[in-house]
Amino acid sequence: MHDSEHEYDEFDEEYKSKTDVKKEMHQLQDFAYKIIKLPKSQRSKLPLDDELKDAMVLADKIINKPEALRRHVRFVAKLLQETGTEEIQATLDFMGNKHQQASAQQSKLEQLRDQLISDNSLLEQTLSEHDGLERQKLRQLVRMAGKEMKAEKPGKQCKALLAYLKEHIS
């Protein structure tokens, strides 16, 4: 056996084919274009270094010039490759996930409201867990919402209880 075959195997672990390099670059370019297309308010929340911020300002100026924008996207992709995209991607994921977080919080509060209406023993536990709640106001809202539920007409008081919980528990 030749030693050159063994050396080739070591080299092979770090070797990237031209196709792989191109795929990575195209992914970075797509990512750069996605960042450029973001509204300025969202882009300002991203952890970009000064060079990338300057590149974004320039991108805003040439957004209506397709060929210049294409070249600039390549430049931004190269900058992203140097700085890394993990932190920026994590921030984008978090920003895109706000709706799901709000929905989860809303459903959690709705469950708490329903539990409070059905089980008065949870009232004391809820009051002890959340300092901002007023005992008298919470009891009154729970009692009125319970009356509505018994009459099978949930409406104003259930919404008022949910609004009160949303205001004081977050």
TrEMBL record:
A Gene Ontology BP annotation from the UniProt entry: assembly of large subunit precursor of preribosome
Function: Member of a network of 50S ribosomal subunit biogenesis factors which assembles along the 30S-50S interface, preventing incorrect 23S rRNA structures from forming. Promotes peptidyl transferase center (PTC) maturation.
Keyword Ligase tagged: no
Primary subcellular site in the record, as a coarse category: cytoplasm
GO cellular component term of the entry, any: cytosol
Compartments, record wording: Cytoplasm
Highest taxon in the source lineage: Bacteria
Keywords from the named record: Cytoplasm, Ribosome biogenesis, RNA-binding, rRNA-binding
A Pfam family reported for this protein in Swiss-Prot or TrEMBL: DarP
Family of this protein: Belongs to the DarP family.
Name under which the protein is recorded: Dual-action ribosomal maturation protein DarP
InterPro entries, per the entry: DarP, DarP_sf
GO molecular function: ribosome binding; rRNA binding
Keyword rRNA-binding annotated: yes
